[in-house]
């Protein structure tokens, strides 16, 4: 009898371990909307035109205010540490909740961009370098709204 219970216990462990929960695309969009609204206010963005062109790949002449918006977004996405640089461990935890088709790309992008902004001291400028790197790595999966 104890043997049967043990087998069921092992089976339960495997079923829990193989169960993945991840965000749906609708949840990602809702999260992006919340982050944009929050960070737009926090960074005191008055002209959204500049923000709208970033996910389209236009990274020229980005104002300091918009760079601070990027810092806020990366903070809310929990991929940067208090110094403004990528927190690799936290970034990987966040990648784990993305849909499978986004997960691997996100993990590689975070690892690829982890050293961006080195030598800079302004958190907003560091965020700009990280965000641009993340965009350049995989534009179709760019998460910053």
From TrEMBL:
It holds the Pfam family PBP_GOBP. It comes from the Eukaryota. InterPro entries: PBP/GOBP, PBP_GOBP_sf. SUPFAM superfamilies: Insect pheromone/odorant-binding proteins. Residues 1-21 form the signal peptide. One of its GO terms (molecular function) is odorant binding. Keywords: Signal. SMART domains: PhBP (SM00708). Gene3D superfamilies: Pheromone/general odorant binding protein domain. The keyword Signal applies. PANTHER family: GENERAL ODORANT-BINDING PROTEIN 19A. This is Odorant binding protein 4. It comes from Anomala corpulenta.
